Amino acid sequence: MNHWHTVVIGGGQAGLATSYCLKKKQHAHIVLERSKQVGNTWRNERWDSFCLVTQNWSLNLPGFPYDGDQPEGFILRDEIVAYLERYAASFDPPLRLGVEVTQVGKAGAEDGYILSTPEETIHADQVVVATGTFQHPRIPAFAENIDPGVRQIHTREYRNAAGLPAGSVLVVGSGQSGCQIVEDLLFAGRKVYLTVGKAPRAPRRYRGKDILQWVDLAGMYDLPIYQHPQGMAVRFNAHAHLSGRDGGRTINLREFGRQGVVLLGRFQGAKGSDLSFADDLVESLNAADEGENRLRKMVDDYIINAKLSVAEEPRKIIDFEPKESILELHLQKENITSIVWATGFRYDFSWIKLPIFDERGYPIYRRGVTQAPGFYFVGLHWMYQWGSGLFYGVGRDAEYIADKIAST
């Protein structure tokens, strides 16, 4: 049985950032990545036109800040992969590709943990789980009741409009991914139907800056989750929809409606070609508006408190209201030949056989430190702060965990 003082599970940005911090401290460790390439999720589970919605200045992995000439641009999918490859090459992490950890458990009466892989069993004194929160597509059970002649895919499988059958497309979910895919389909000239949920909207720019520049200046990226007004619940909220495409733009559901997208309420059920939707479209559209209002107020308050001289900016009103709430839809009648499930992901930590999870199966920790001695998490969405799951903030958590490990 191989023995390592520290094993990092996952070789994405969180695992690589942790490895960088450990290597800087000259701490012996190994990084196990189940894929055979760095950046596999970005490479194979994002659509062709995908780009980050955060600006390039936010690419700030430890020891490897963005060094290009477009800090206010938006990096494309293939450029994200190249950035991660260059990052790995910059410090040569002890990375083993193509090794999947199938189970982790306590090492019996011994100290440390036993990691099972198809090839070998590994004993580790300390373990860092850097596999992220978004592991398995979340698709409602009633999807099985839909006419099998209609193609159904999750956002992780979507590549471009040409990859879908000819005809109209139903996108289920109006969060960040769903709205960006609607945008992609519209550019391709497709007729689109969109079910609308409670995800808020963010303005791309406001009062002379990108909205996320204001978020950073106001300290919101650094706000610990324990101080957030919504508390731990914010971890499971939908991302606000906005776009980085073609230099960045605001995504507005009402503008979608004006462009011909058929907006629907929450998807409630299906039987064959007959679909049913909740009568909550107006409520959801209003909720998206309120999300933008909250962000604008946050910026306004920050400008006042910081005593900045910045011109005010009136809100642009999109004059669109749905004529009626569509409660039922027939796929064949509407020529809907494909459905894209933009319903997010579910986490799955069932392979970790330790008593460190709550009733929802979510890990219990304090800034990634669990009650199990020497067992840590890095890179989870809102793990400690807003930036914890992003290129911008994951390095700070990685450094914190590396300090804990090195001091043990």
Q: Would you write up a description of this structure?
A:
This protein has eight helices and 22 strands. It is an alpha/beta fold and 408 residues long. It folds into two domains: 194 residues, FAD/NAD(P)-binding domain (3-Layer(bba) Sandwich), CATH 3.50.50; 205 residues, FAD/NAD(P)-binding domain (3-Layer(bba) Sandwich), CATH 3.50.50. β3 and β4 form a beta hairpin. α1 runs parallel beside α3 and α1 packs across α8. The longest helix is centred in the last third of the chain and has 25 residues. It starts with a strand and ends with a helix.
Report the major sheet.
8 strands, mixed
CATH superfamily of the largest domain: FAD/NAD(P)-binding domain
> What fraction, in percent, of the residue positions are helical?
10-25%
Briefly, what CATH class of the largest domain?
Alpha Beta
The tally of helices reads: 8
Looking at the structure, the CATH topology of the largest domain is: FAD/NAD(P)-binding domain
Class derived from helix and strand content = alpha/beta
The coarse silhouette is globular
Distance between the termini: 23 Å
Number of domains: 2
* Regions with little confidence, pLDDT below 50 for 5+ residues: none
Gyration radius over CA: 22 Å
Overall strand count: 22
Name the average pLDDT.
95
- Name the beta content range: 15-25%
Secondary-structure element order, N to C: EHEHEEHEEEEEEEHEEEHHEEEHEEEEEH
CATH architecture descriptor name of the largest domain: 3-Layer(bba) Sandwich
